[in-house]
Design goal:
Strand content: 35-45%
Number of strands: 8
Radius of gyration: 13 Å
Length: about 100
């Protein structure tokens, strides 16, 4: 069975948003990280948005309420960050409205 490489993200317990083209969400973890959810992402260039959606099969949907701030790679500064929930009722969450965002 071959696995594909997809644009995936994880949320760590210390608030880091890690993104990358990987086979498994765990490939985004650093040795001391604890993952509290993840999913997939894409960039909408025309609307300048980083869209996070769905959930990780292994880690579930991101648990935004467990972090006090979101630490995002500086490469994504200037993009609005939104999360599209994967459960009913589907909703679009503007992450900046629920968490302060820091860029590193």
């Amino acid at each position: 069975m071959t696995m594909g490489i997809y644009p995936k993200f994880i949320l760590t317990s210390d608030g880091h948003l890690r993104l990358g083209m990987v086979n498994m969400h765990r490939d985004l973890l650093n040795p001391d990280d604890h993952c509290i959810g993840g999913g997939y992402y894409h960039i909408e260039v025309s609307s300048m948005r980083l869209v996070l959606d769905r959930e990780s099969y292994d880690y579930g949907s991101p648990q935004w309420s467990r972090v006090s701030r979101l630490i995002v790679p500086r490469d994504y500064e200037g993009l609005q960050i939104v999360y599209l929930s994967s459960s009913w009722p589907y909703e679009e969450i503007n992450i900046a409205s629920i968490l302060p965002i820091c860029y590193e």
